[in-house]
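Long-time lurker. I teach an intro course on protein structure, and each term I like to show students one example going from raw sequence to a predicted 3D structure in token notation. This year I'd like something fresh instead of my usual example. Would anyone be willing to generate the tokens for the chain below so I can use it in lecture? Attribution to the forum is fine with me.
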Amino acid sequence: KHLIDLGLHGDAIKVLDFVREERDDIAELWYLYCFTYRLMGDEESVQDAAKRGKRLLRESGGAQVARNPLSGEILLMDDFDDIVHGFGVDDRALDVMEEEEKHAHRAAAAETLRLYDELQAGKEPEG
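-- Reply from a regular --
Happy to contribute to a lecture. Here you go:
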């Protein structure tokens, strides 16, 4: 989950692949695959992961409670459907949100560098 949060989607997939080699019968695993593939824009893999995860939920018949790895709530079929349908927003809206997030990270990095430069120059940082 942390790799996904950091935007290291390829690394997250590698970790999920490692877990899958040991146990591929965990609905939460397929939810994270589905979520990560959605962020990567890999529609075919989103569909495949959602099908596998939903199948596992159906087969367990409630005998095993799966938890949504992102929210901690009970994992439902609808959680997979939300990802398949793009979280209720179109791809353009996702692009805008990603650009806004990148801008915020750049601004924070620039502010950190400014404060660092002031400290290096022996000034008391402003703000």
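Some talking points for your students: The chain has six helices and no strands. The CA atoms of residues 27 and 53 lie 5 Å apart.
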